[in-house]
Amino acid sequence: MAELLRQAWTIARKDLLLEFRSRTAIMSAAVFTALVLVVFNFGRDPTAVPTLTIAPSILWVTFTFAGMVALNRAFELELENLTLDGLLLSPISRHSLYLGKLAANLVFVAAVETIGLFLFAVLFDVPIWHVLGALVGVIALATLGFIAVGTLFSAMVLRTRFAELMLPVLLLPFLMLPLRWAVQATSALLAARPLSEMMGSLKLLAAYDIVFVTLATLLFPSIVEE
Amino acid sequence: MSLVQKGRGITLVGLALLGGVYVRALAFTPVERLQGPAQKIYYLHVPAAIWTETAIIMVGLAGAFYLFLGDRRLDLFAQASAEVGTVFATIVLTTGPIWGKPIWGTWWTWDARLTSMLLLFFLYLGYLLMRGAVRDPALAARYGAVLGICGACLVPFIHFSVYFFPTLHPQPIVLKPSTPSLPGSMLTTFLSSFAVFTLLYVGFVTQRYAIGREKELGEAGSHA
User: Fold this and answer.
1) Do B130 and A215 touch (CB under 8 A)?
2) What ipTM was assigned to the predicted interfaces of this complex?
């Protein structure tokens, strides 16, 4: 187990280091997130719908699209100079490779979400600061499941035609349920509802995380096997 | 008799029996007191919905066994089951609105149950599109297996979601923990329809499987 995690950390560190050195992907993803938020501003009538009513939807649709952009680059990174083959030939277990990629994606998406959350609070004047801790918890819970399935599928679409198009087509049906639970939990949180009102959604999100992180770790070797 | 012909035979028997079920449903089964004749669609809608969900579980099971055993036939079965599941999901998503318009006053509502079925439909479409986007058959089979397993694992969540959130959709009256609350004659019609849909699933899948098998054997022969 320790060896598995150590190898996973090596992979994650490599990806994050590459990201940190160039910073192109993270900057592009952050700008993209800001643009989606701006698009939302133009796509609604503020006199017809109160901001707080649609705020959770704005937040989660933005995170979904930003996550998708981040996932597309996870394995594309390995296409240049056939480095994926190198990784597969190296004495690193396939499970570690998956967990490493998952960890790097989570850090990447968390960075983008942090920027997104801040911009969301400022641009739409949503009072998030008094529930920030709990909101971060909900975001973390939902993002884990989302990125777990996404990391698995992004490795899969690599060798399909129209990879950029195929990822959302495969992934979105898997994201709609956690998206719905996350929106419900966020709505309850922003409206200062009691914890009992969001427990159902939180339990489902946690169950989803456990099932899909385990499943994706187990299935990943079948995807990259030659 | 070849497997394709056997599958075709089963399907034709199934379709003839479906006609019989509808004669029984329209002429010999009482009209529901509140919903009137619109309720007759129930005998088509519910069995198709049950088989839509069962078919994706079959795809997942076949996928799991394929990853262990590597038997091409399992993949052919999974592919066949996914295609038939797509057809059944289409039946559910077509008959639902036809019932919904007179009863609910709308073709569609974003209710938990309706949305769940739509999710399953997109899941099937994704599976079929992905299979078409991979050139190498062995790779497509492995990807299909992984996607099928993930899809089958999503089904329980779809179910739980339905019970967690408020729904307009009628609650189950046959498949529920207590005894079915459908009157005897309606229950008989429903069970006959369910048996016919089972036959149709077997017939369609057998045909599709046999066609896939013949195609593969043909390709192997032409390469030899």
Assistant:
1) no
2) 0.90
